[in-house]
Design a protein that fits this description.
The complex is a heterodimer of chains A (512) and B (254).
Chain A: H1 33-38, H2 49-63, H3 65-73, H4 85-90, H5 97-112, H6 114-118, H7 120-123, H8 130-139, H9 148-152, H10 159-172, H11 178-189, H12 198-216, E1 231-234, H13 245-259, E2 263-264, H14 282-299, E3 303-306, H15 310-324, H16 333-339, E4 350-351, H17 352-361, E5 377-380, H18 383-388, H19 397-409, H20 440-446, H21 448-461, E6 465-468, H22 471-480, E7 491-493, H23 494-501
Parallel strand pairs in A: 1-2, 1-3, 3-4, 5-6, 6-7
Chain B: H1 3-32, H2 48-61, H3 63-68, H4 70-94, H5 101-104, H6 113-129, H7 131-136, H8 139-160, H9 167-179, H10 189-204, H11 212-215, H12 220-223, H13 236-253
The chains are: A mainly alpha (512), B mainly alpha (254).
Bound molecules: iron/sulfur cluster (SF4) (2 copies).
């Protein structure tokens, strides 16, 4: 733990001077042949990689308006340069969003624009050579695709779109990241990120049922593969076993118990996370979404609810309707097939926070807030929820609903400084497929701005608990908090707070 | 007609051609390229009026830039503000026939040269002084600012130091360009430099970062509604793929 140099926390966020190449390196571990081929990518770096990569770039800019437009219109105003947590934490100028894009842009210019073809030096166009590819691999894996930069760019240029495209190009030539691609292989084969097979999955949850009953004296069920229930819950698989996630999962179960709404998990689609987004692959992301579509159809549910996971909620909220027709308002037969089955009275898909919030609004959940009185709680807005989704279909609902749910369960809530939350929230430092030990230095440094904000809240309001709404954030914080001399257990699930304060009935309420 | 006049007339049409064709191609490309996903960036509007308001605020007030950096915003905004006013002022030359009332009173707009110049110098200063911005700047980024400064400088020199060519001659020349009834161009050096630099700017517009002007309208993070759950959004290529797959499924089932 100690070999990473961590700056002493200041109580404000300072923009560092650039330190060229301070994070230069070989990047995270590369995926092996088997892993790559599993996903349909070449097993290793192919011989004619340059040619294939350039064709892939051409293909990408013709399919993604975002990439095409963003590559063209950046004016190098510099407004985004101090907005990335990885730049603030590492001082490496290639972690400034515009400089990160420029790795891609310089190649695009070289091969696809008049000025870049004939006056490369003038416009900063560069050849795609080994050195450039190394920089791509290294620095496009120092972007958590958090989209903070996009909020501050006058043209909304979203570096996440570029880094997704870059990773897709690299995969197409056989250069993939071990961590993300291995996980995707597991989902493809087994159905969840952990590669936890069905029997183990069922056993774990059976044990959990027992534990909850022992602790609360109430028989709270965790149904699996139950047909013709109302709700299919799709949670990130970390919720089933990891700390502190699992206490949040218990919270969901308690809420379902109190609500009287029938629900189930699916052993076939036991994963909400969809790393297909991180590697920018439409096809891989779609396969993940189709698993959930299939589970919903097979189980005959009328609602799909997503657990506490950041990028999963962005994928569900923003992309499922596109990928698999899980949503509303389709004109095509394919999507309608599923949409007819879904209950139109509820948003589809729905977030567990929306579900809990609605129950609170209807007075169906009763809390004993005093059980959380030892806590002064603050809330970390996860980037994908904050900037790529909504909740409650009201403006800024993704900021309002989680806070209201927390406040319903806790008496002491304070926010961190305004420039570090909501639309301006800082990434935990581990998103976007970077939550791997081979990137630990980056993760620790990238957490700096959030840690500084937390420090401020600790000093001004004695905050001792940080609630999060994302499996990656929770794992990342548990790991990096000690580097900054915080208690790793201070990070909790929002539904852990709910679960601890909720007053349970012995018998599940019958549905009204 | 003098050689210089002929050269400038040719240059004018050539630049205009590059501008129109280049820009049309770019806009057509942006238009055609599908946006496969809903990716509006927060705070994303959920209704059309709010979406239009967002775009208007971005385009006229540079809202996001304001959030990001007050200095860049200030210099950027006063520069563009000056630019718009001066553009309007220059209609005096190109307006066919009688000037409308409003243009007759547009003379004070010439003072817009000052905010324009202030903005440009500020932006150049930032580019040189702030290490982060210096790092991301290519020669073309400096040259673009220098080109604009040179245009502003030659324009201001003529306007404020009484070596302006006869306005009527300029107007005749400009009118001639439009009506194809060409006339002689005044040959003061500064004036020629001013015109030349503007034509260069016009010509390189579609192959430079000036594309941000049309591009901002096509930015999917800014111009999309936040309604992904309510309405299915799918790109032409994805739909095609889906239909092919479904076709295959049906074949398999039969
Ligand atoms: S804020 Fe946008 S336009 Fe400005 S440098 Fe960054 S990406 Fe480019
Ligand atoms: S998306 Fe996030 S991590 Fe990536 S460059 Fe932008 S601010 Fe940095």
């Amino acid at each position: 733990m100690s070999d990473i140099k961590v700056e002493k926390l200041k109580t404000y966020i300072e923009t560092p001077l650039i330190e060229i190449d301070s994070m230069k390196g070989v990047g995270p571990f590369k995926a092996n042949k088997e892993t790559q081929e599993e996903l349909g990518f070449p097993g290793e770096k192919i011989d004619n990689w340059k040619e294939v990569a350039i064709n892939k770039i051409a293909d990408t800019v013709s399919k993604y308006r975002s990439v095409q437009v963003f590559l063209d219109i950046c004016v190098k105003c510099g407004a985004c340069t101090d907005k990335c947590h990885y730049y603030l934490g590492t001082s490496d100028p290639k972690n400034m969003p515009v400089a990160r894009q420029d790795l891609f842009r310089s190649v695009y210019r070289r091969y696809f624009t008049f000025s870049g073809k004939y006056f490369p030096k003038l416009v900063g166009a560069k050849d795609l050579d080994d050195e450039m590819l190394d920089d791509w691999y290294n620095y496009f894996h120092q972007c958590s695709q958090c989209r903070r930069c996009s909020v501050f760019c006058p043209y909304g240029i979203d570096t996440a779109e570029i880094s997704m495209a870059a990773r897709e190009v690299m995969n197409s030539i056989g250069v993939g990241q071990k961590y993300s691609n291995q996980i995707l292989g597991k989902v493809k084969k087994i159905g969840n990120n952990l590669g936890m097979p069905e029997p183990a999955f069922k056993d774990t949850l059976l044990d959990l049922e027992e534990e909850i009953e022992q602790e609360t004296g109430v028989a709270i069920r965790i149904p699996i593969d139950k047909k013709d229930v109302e709700v299919l819950l799709v949670a990130p698989s970390a919720d089933f076993f990891a700390e502190p996630h699992i206490d949040g999962f218990i919270g969901y179960a308690k809420v379902f118990h109190q609500s009287g709404v029938s629900w189930t998990l699916s052993s076939y689609a036991s994963e909400a996370a969809n790393f297909g987004m991180f590697i920018g692959s439409y096809e891989v992301m779609r396969q993940g979404a189709l698993r959930i579509r299939k589970a919903a159809i097979d189980l005959g549910v009328s609602r799909v609810i997503v657990g506490e996971c950041g990028h999963a909620w962005r994928v569900a909220y923003s992309f499922w309707n596109t990928l698999s027709g899980l949503g509303g308002g389709a004109g095509d037969e394919y999507a309608l097939q599923l949409q007819k089955q879904l209950d139109k009275r509820y948003p589809q898909p729905q977030h567990i926070i929306e579900f809990t919030y609605d129950l609170i609004q209807q007075g169906k959940l009763v809390f004993d807030k005093s059980r959380n009185d030892h806590r002064v709680v603050t809330f970390h807005d996860s980037c994908n929820i904050a900037r790529g989704s909504n909740m409650g279909d009201i403006e800024n609902g993704q900021f309002i609903l989680p806070r209201e749910v927390i406040k319903a369960a806790c008496s002491n809530f304070v926010d961190m400084p305004i420039e570090t939350i909501k639309i301006s929230t800082f990434c935990c430092g581990g998103g976007g497929g970077l939550l791997t030990d081979d990137l630990i230095e980056l993760r620790v440094k990238g957490a700096l701005p959030r840690m500084q904000a937390l420090k401020q809240a600790e000093e001004s309001d004695a905050v001792n608990t940080m609630a999060a709404l994302c499996a990656i954030c929770k794992s990342q914080f548990s790991k990096v908090l000690p580097y900054y001399e915080f208690d790793p257990y201070m990070v909790v699930s929002v539904h852990q707070l709910v679960g601890e304060a909720i007053i349970l009935d012995k018998e599940p309420k019958s549905k009204n | 007609m003098s050689l210089i006049s002929i050269l400038f007339i040719l240059l004018f049409y050539f630049s205009l051609l590059l501008f129109v064709v280049g820009l049309a191609r770019k806009v057509a490309q942006y238009w055609r390229t599908p946006a496969p996903f809903k990716i509006p960036i927060a705070p994303a509007p959920q209704t059309l009026p709010k979406l239009y308001l967002r775009m208007l605020r971005e385009i006229f007030l540079f809202e996001s830039l304001f959030k990001a950096n007050k200095w860049t915003w200030f210099f950027g905004w006063v520069f563009h503000f000056g630019l718009v006013l001066l553009f309007f002022r220059h209609l005096v030359y190109f307006w066919p026939g009688e000037l409308p009332e409003i243009l007759l009173h547009s003379s004070p707009l010439r003072f817009a040269a000052f905010p324009l110049m202030l903005g440009l110098l500020g932006l150049l200063g930032r580019r040189v002084i702030v290490d982060r911005v210096r790092y991301i700047s290519s020669p073309s980024d400096y040259l673009m600012l220098i080109l604009l400064i040179a245009i502003a400088f030659t324009g201001a020199l003529m306007t404020f130091f009484h070596n302006h060519p006869n306005m009527l001659l300029v107007k005749n020349f400009a009118q001639g360009l439009i009506t194809l009834n060409w006339s002689e161009l005044p040959e003061e050096g500064i004036f020629l430099a001013h015109i030349f630099l503007v034509l260069v700017l016009v010509a390189i517009f579609p192959i430079s970062k000036l594309l941000h002007a049309p591009g901002v309208f096509f930015s999917p993070t800014l111009n999309q509604l936040d309604n992904a759950r309510k309405k299915r959004h799918i790109s032409s290529w994805a739909l095609e793929k889906e239909e092919n797959e479904n076709g295959q499924d049906l074949e398999k089932n039969n």
